C-alpha cells in the first residue's frame, strides 16, 4: 500500500516537472520568434542594416535610411532599432520636398496671395465664396497644410439654397416677409413662408418654417 502511494507521488512529481520544462521551452521559443514588421517606404530606402537590410527584423536589428533624392528632406530618425517588444524605437522616416502653390477648392479661395512654394509645416487659410458656409466639423477645417511635399487637409464649403419665384408659385407660397422675390439662403439659415392669397396650407403650420441644408431646402405647399 505504501509502495503504491509512493509511485503515485513520483508520477505526479514527474508530470509537474515535465509541464514546467515544456512551459519554459515554449516561452523561450516565443521569445526567439519576436520580430519587428517592416513598414511602407515613402521616398526613402534602407541604406544599410545590421545584421542585414531584409526581414526578419529581430530585437537589436538596426536599419539606416536615406532619401531617394538628394533634394528631398528627411522627416524622422535616420536610424531605428527593433526592440524586444517587437516594436521599432521610432517610426520609419519619410522624405519629402517643398509644396507648390496650394490647390483650388470648390467655392473657395485662399485668404492671402499664394506663393510659388511652401516649406513643410506651412499652412494656407481658405475663405468660402459669398453665401457659402465653411464646414468646420471634423475632418474639415479652414486650412490646408504642407506636409513633406504634399498638401494635406479637407476643406468644404456648404452650398446656399436658392428660393426662386417659380418654385414658390408652383407650390402656391411666398416669403413671409418679402413676398414674391428670389432669395439665397445660406446653410442652416431659416426661411419662413406664407400661403399666397386665397390658398390654404397642406399639413401643419410648422412646415412654413424651413432650414437650408447644404443647398437643399424643403418647400411647403398651399392650394
Automatic annotation (TrEMBL):
Keyword Transit peptide appears in the UniProt entry: no
Xref: CDD domains: CCP
Keywords from the UniProt entry: Disulfide bond, Signal, Sushi
Span of domain Sushi: 97-159
SUPFAM superfamilies assigned: Complement control module/SCR domain
Annotated localization: Virion
Keyword rRNA-binding included in the entry's annotation: no
Leader peptide range in chain numbering: 1-31
Main location: virion
Protein name as it appears in the record: Sushi domain-containing protein
Native organism: Phoxinus phoxinus (Eurasian minnow)
Amino acid at each position: 500500500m505504501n509502495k503504491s502511494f509512493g509511485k503515485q507521488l513520483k508520477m505526479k512529481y514527474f508530470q509537474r516537472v515535465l509541464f514546467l520544462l515544456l512551459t519554459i521551452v515554449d516561452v523561450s521559443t516565443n521569445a526567439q520568434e519576436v520580430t519587428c514588421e517592416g513598414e511602407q517606404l515613402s521616398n526613402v530606402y534602407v541604406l544599410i542594416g545590421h545584421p542585414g537590410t531584409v526581414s526578419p527584423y529581430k530585437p537589436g536589428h538596426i536599419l539606416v535610411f536615406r532619401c531617394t533624392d538628394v533634394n528631398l528632406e528627411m522627416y524622422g530618425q535616420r536610424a531605428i532599432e527593433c526592440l524586444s517588444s517587437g516594436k521599432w524605437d521610432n517610426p520609419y522616416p519619410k522624405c519629402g520636398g517643398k509644396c507648390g502653390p496650394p490647390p483650388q477648392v470648390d467655392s473657395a479661395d485662399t485668404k492671402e496671395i499664394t506663393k510659388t512654394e511652401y516649406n513643410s509645416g506651412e499652412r494656407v487659410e481658405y475663405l468660402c465664396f459669398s453665401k457659402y458656409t465653411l464646414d468646420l466639423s471634423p475632418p474639415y477645417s479652414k486650412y490646408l497644410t504642407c506636409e513633406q511635399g504634399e498638401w494635406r487637409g479637407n476643406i468644404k464649403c456648404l452650398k446656399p439654397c436658392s428660393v426662386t419665384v417659380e418654385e414658390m408659385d408652383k407650390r402656391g407660397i411666398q416669403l413671409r416677409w418679402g413676398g414674391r422675390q428670389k432669395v439665397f439662403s445660406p446653410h442652416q439659415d431659416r426661411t419662413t413662408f406664407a400661403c399666397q392669397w386665397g390658398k390654404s396650407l397642406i399639413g401643419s403650420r410648422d412646415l412654413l418654417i424651413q432650414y437650408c441644408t447644404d443647398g437643399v431646402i424643403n418647400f411647403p405647399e398651399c392650394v
